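Protocol check, entry for the methods section draft. Step 1: assemble the input record (protein sequence plus ligand SMILES). Step 2: submit for complex structure prediction. Step 3: store the structure tokens unaltered in the notebook. Ligand used here: zinc ion. Step 1 record:
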Amino acid sequence: MFPSTTCRHNGCGRIALSNSDWCSEHLPDVEAHYAWLKSHLEATHVFIDLDVAGLTLSDLDLSGKEFRTSRFSGTRFSNCNFANATFYMCFFDGSVHCGTRFTSTEMQNCVFGCAQLIKCDFSGSNIIQMNFNGSTCEQTSFSDSDLLHSRFIASSLTDVDFVNCNLKEVLYRDSIRTRVNFKYSNDEDAHFDLPEVVR
Ligand SMILES: [Zn+2]
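Step 3, stored output:
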């Protein structure tokens, strides 16, 4: 996974974007790259090793698409729709989302570490073994979802709904939770605090 081409810019060690020799910061022709990306996203159904790290994606309908081993690290999403999409081993670390729709998705082993999720909707999804550690979630719903073995360690959750969810072995340790709703969920099967150290 992930072809290891690095950016051609002198001294830049970042991984190059898909269909480019450059990272998002050193793209020589930003407009041309976005034009290619837009048509590629529209025309393709299954993406493997897609790399759009650090780019900005706005008002895109990517519903029902499949993403495997793809990199969205530091990508900024505004009003994008991933309803009914599938994600496997994808990296969203440090990404920023405003109004992203992830409803009825199948997600496994993806990383949203230190991501910002504002007004996002993950409801009705299978969110299995996912990493939301250190993320900031506001006005976001995970309701009616299976979150088996997912981790929200040291996350900040404000006005977040986990209504009618499977929370078996979900880790919320060291998280800051304000108006988080666990109604009809098995939060007794989740873990909220670090185990006591016995000396
Ligand atoms: Zn670069």
